[in-house]
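Reviewers asked in the last cycle whether our approach scales beyond single polypeptides. To address this, we selected a multi-component target totalling 1013 residues and predicted its structure end to end. The input consisted of the following lines:
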Amino acid sequence: MRRRRAGFAWMVAAALPLFLSACGSDKSGTPESNVSSAGSSDSASALASASNSSEPDIKGEITWATHRTDLVDNGTFDRYVAEFKTKYPGITDVKIEGLKDYSQTIKVRMAGNEAPDVFSPPDEIKENYPALYASLDDLGLQGNLLLESNGTYEGHLYAVVSGATTNGLVYNKKAFAAAGLSGPPKTLDELFAAAEKLKAAGIVAMATDFKDAWPLTYWYDVEQFLANSSQFHNDVYNNDPPFTVDGPFGQAFGILKRLIDGKFVEPDIYSTDWEGSIKDIATGKAGMYMIGQWLLPQMADTGGGDPADFGFVPFPYDNSGSYKAVLSPDYSFAVNAKSKNIPAAKAWLKYLIEDSTYAEDTGMIPILKSKKTGIPQLIEFMTWNPTMITSEPALPNALKIEQKLQWDPSKFLQEAVVSKNLEAYFASFNQKYAAEKKALQP
Amino acid sequence: MRHFSYKTQKQVMIVLFLLLPVTLLAAFGIYPAVQLVRLSFTSWNGYLPGKPWVGLDNYREVFQSPELFRIFGHNAVYLLWGIVQNAVGLAFAILLNARLRGRNLYRVILFLPFILNGTAVAFMFKYMYHSQVGSLNALLSTIGFGHVAVSWLGNPDLVNHALGFAGFWRNMGFNMVIYLAALQSIPSDILEAARIDGANRQQAFVRVTLPGIVKIVELNLFLTVIGALEAFELPFLLTGGGPLGASETFVTKTMSTAFKFSDFGLASAMSVILLLLVAAVLVMQRLLMRRWSH
Amino acid sequence: MNGRSNPVRSLITHGLLWLAAFMIFFPLYSIVLSAFKGKAEFAHSNIFEWPHSFLQWDNFEYVLHNGKLFHAFGNTIAITLMSLVGNLFVSTMAAYILGRFRFRGKITILGAFTAVSFIPSITTQVATFTIIQKLGLFNTLFAPVLLYIGTDIIQLYVYLQFIRTVPEELDESAMLEGASLFGIYRAIILPLLAPAIATMVIIKSINIYNDMYIPYLYMPSKELGVVSTSLMRFVADRTTEWQYMSAAVLLIMAPVIVGFLAAQRYVFAGIVAGAVK
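The resulting structure, written as structure tokens, was:
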């Protein structure tokens, strides 16, 4: 589960809690069609909007909690509210709460029975969904959503993914030109060759934002490419032992390790910060960044770069010349089962998915199959013909073990790539994992 | 009221006047503490209705996790800085207890950091410690020590000291003011008498001043130990426990157990153990001080 | 050795104090410089270089406007006033009873106040939240007010020290004149506590002003932002715009510094009273 982090990890407990959550699968989905052409989202959203504005139940006031405090601050969401009120004149107000420390705050409020009407589930243990969230079966969304099974339990829809992300290699064309490179690397060897040239030109070859840890989770996608898998959590669970130096995890981590050991990354990887990394890649102080497509709009806004310089291509994980990309879910939206105004809450959720410009504003791929993304760089991305992998749900047991072990994938990766003895590091974790797995089996 | 006997009045007053303070204490102090203990025997995940009873499982788990106790090694760095903070605070108190020009101004300056907003102070130190734009490394290179410029919050060996120093910066003045108040309470005639008996400055300090402030030293040290055990705000705001978990403290770990890994029961058990530790420190310190003063 | 100051000793003393003052002002000094620099100026000047002008208030204006600070100041003042008034009564009433009367359970109550002060409040937030919610105070200004009104052991301790210095004979003679116990509280105890109350009002105000977690957790609504939450929300989204961050940090610190300088006499008096007596 990926998302933009607005700035400094103000309360760091918020940084990565959701990564552990399951990712859903949508085998019937055709994500390619969504990203293959950058059409006008306006016409698409008009088409998708089929709700009935004369519904009498949709009235009163609701509350919506979001982690996107930046879009609260800059008034984007106020615009949504105004639009929503025009659509449903009975609505008196949508109170928006921008929560910085999202996961912790929302859990305290759920425990205290004071959760907002619409919010993002902080956890994806789906057996709890029916007790916590209202069923969305009547919204007519089923069958039209990417990553739909991410929010379904026993055939009912309880949560809708707010947007999809795909990983890839962001590169700065200006930096590449300065280093004498004519185009993005097409193979892993070319990637390292490009890194050498960028480094020689005094450019940070690969931005990592290592200190914040969570951007590193994209390296787990590389494991999925190598293992031909659609859910790394399940690979950890099914592999025996989970981590080996020669296996897909070891190989994927090895690419990052080689970049770090060769000093192709930021000069001090322990003092990087999120906004600094965006500025570096946007302005050409850094050449490449292995991250999600949603970074692109932010590189123009926050980073102050020229969008003409931004390139986005699949990550060349080997030398075969074939590419892959993982389509994964961002936060979901759900309606509080205890909401006192469920009809209005559902209407707001439907509005967010069908009518609002949420996907555009967050730089994500719209979750509604009929909507098209407006990110021009994705066209370049698709010309490389990557095989799109849709995330599978993580096995409940895999999640349980990880939670029990307090396993944080990005921190694990951090420690692994700087450890002096990767084999021993893996071995000690494998041992703990095996013990926990054994304890779980009846 | 006047018509009632003082005995009745007294009873009425006790009930009436204590009603609100004690209710608030019960609601926001005692009840949450009792809940904490109760939840430590459950496997509650922190937000679902069900709170399954698991007996002592959580405690067993804490005591079977040596890495949890290793985190107290990070807290120990805060304790170290806390002791330095007490020593420096006492030293400045002694300096300011003498007749000195600008004494009050110094007292105000040294105390100033203590009243500043903790979060703002954290942001300020984040800026100062920044390895590229930070003023600390800039200062070092200005005075010719550019080669020791490092990533203060990024180096696993340094990070706790950097955070401990920020705590020292903020709280030293508070210790100093307390020590100063204690010193000023020692009647000057006792010191005079000691001098007349032929004691020099050092001897007078050891024989008269120190015993006079020993209670305050004890209190301050107790608060320092507690502060170190419960260190939370600075790592939470500045490093999030990083790099590589090097600045995790017991309380940041408790918080992530509760809210990141949804193991509220275990986190409650950790909190209870922390409170037992605090109580143990209190008892130990009392015993030590009693033996020492005899 | 005598009381006359030795020049070498005095030099060392002042030297050490200057060093300490430097250490304290150094981080503050760098944010003051940065807060007055424009974006381009910040990027191109040395950190210790003075800004072109200390009259360049753009950063502060930007922070005040975008951080929605004026509204936040209103909320902070409202919360502080209500809390102070409530706390004044709650704490002095408790101190009067605990300081003047002997009754069963007194030690238990004092012990409970002490014990509770050792619990890091962050670990008990879930239970506290439940209570606030059940009282229907969530997302109202009264949630933090109720949490701030309660008294704590430090405040009680300072008041008890003061009450102890008031001779009981005073109460007794008042009783002979027919005063009620409530009358004694109002006419003798409260006025005598005045200096301690002044100290506690200042300290409590500073604490309320500086607190961020309680307003953040209990009043997420945008309209209910207080100074600390608004500024921190503002800063957290702009961590690499150091000139804005510096201006915000200065803005949040400034009222407390001014207040402290104006009232430092009372602050120290109260601490002295609490520490020594």
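The radius of gyration of chain B is 24 Å. We regard this as preliminary and will revisit it once experimental data from Aim 1 are available.
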